[in-house]
Amino acid sequence: MLRVVVLISGGGSNLAALLGECDAPGFPAEVVAVGADRDAVGLDHARARGIPAFVVPFAAHPDRESWGDALVAAVAVHEPDLVVLSGLMRLLPPRAVDAFAPRLINTHPAYLPEFPGAHGVRDALAAGVTETGASVILVDTGVDTGAILAQERVPVLPDDDEATLHDRIKPVERRLLADVVRGIADGTIALDPIAASSHAQPDPDLTT
Ligand SMILES: Nc1nc2c(c(=O)[nH]1)N[C@@H](CN(C=O)c1ccc(C(=O)N[C@@H](CCC(=O)O)C(=O)O)cc1)CN2
Ligand SMILES: NCC(=O)N[C@@H]1O[C@H](COP(=O)([O-])[O-])[C@@H](O)[C@H]1O
């Protein structure tokens, strides 16, 4: 059984969907803990199931690296086989990436490398594209520059706003994430340390 720690920042709807997948008989993974960089309401999805929930407040640390070190320590307690960033709205500093990679993945609501960053849905709308997507990637020291493990196109409709488009993207994200976690657990997806190496140029902002 693959031991998974999920990290979030917000409502955790994608976490809730993964928890539901884990309930299915034969699903080869279990969420053993959920963490956040702030007091995220989504942690209640874990608490309601008796799954350990923890907060490592970014604001409580003098800099990103020290926050990252504290996060690594809090995650390591749970001895994960895989760390899933599912709505963690905080860039991990290089030491934290290196502590977890290549068993570190992220879901993003865009068809990477299109629209990376904190506002992928908003940016797709602003660009006026007729399609965007969802992606699951390995996490490296860049911003959404890791190897792509799964992605799928999602249409943008003329009357979409950020909420309606994001609501169309999320179910695709959830399915892709479940498929990737299942694939990692059953060995059909190999997390290649080379592919996951920090080949990206570290984002200079990551050390602030
Ligand atoms: N080292 C990495 N860490 C993280 C990555 C990554 O690719 N490399 N992905 C993010 C998730 N994400 C996009 O998928 C993302 C989230 C947040 C940001 C960002 O700029 N955050 C700001 C704070 C924004 C805020 O407070 O609202 C920051 O960290 O300073 C960019 C991309 C997870 N971590
Ligand atoms: N760049 C990172 C990013 O935008 N992540 C996105 O935040 C949402 C979290 O929703 P949730 O808290 O309801 O699961 C998800 O769509 C996730 O892909």
TrEMBL record:
Gene3D superfamilies: Formyl transferase, N-terminal domain (3.40.50.170)
Site features described as Raises pKa of active site His, chain residue numbers: 144
E.C. numbers: 2.1.2.2
Residue stretches making up the Formyl transferase N-terminal domain: 3-181
Gene Ontology BP, a term: 'de novo' IMP biosynthetic process
Pfam families, alphabetized: Formyl_trans_N
The keyword Transferase appears for this protein: yes
Pathway(s) annotated for this protein in UniProt: Purine metabolism; IMP biosynthesis via de novo pathway; N(2)-formyl-N(1)-(5-phospho-D-ribosyl)glycinamide from N(1)-(5-phospho-D-ribosyl)glycinamide (10-formyl THF route): step 1/1
Active site, per annotation: 108 (proton donor)
Molecular function as annotated in GO: phosphoribosylglycinamide formyltransferase activity
GO CC terms in record: cytosol
UniProtKB keywords: Purine biosynthesis, Transferase
Spans traversing the lipid bilayer: none
List of residues binding (6R)-10-formyltetrahydrofolate: 64, 89-92, 106
Keyword Phosphoprotein: no
Annotated binding of N(1)-(5-phospho-beta-D-ribosyl)glycinamide, by residue: 12-14
Database matches in PANTHER family: PHOSPHORIBOSYLGLYCINAMIDE FORMYLTRANSFERASE
Family: Belongs to the GART family.
HAMAP family per the UniProt record, alphabetical: PurN
Protein role: Catalyzes the transfer of a formyl group from 10-formyltetrahydrofolate to 5-phospho-ribosyl-glycinamide (GAR), producing 5-phospho-ribosyl-N-formylglycinamide (FGAR) and tetrahydrofolate.
Protein name (record): Phosphoribosylglycinamide formyltransferase
Gene name in the database record: purN
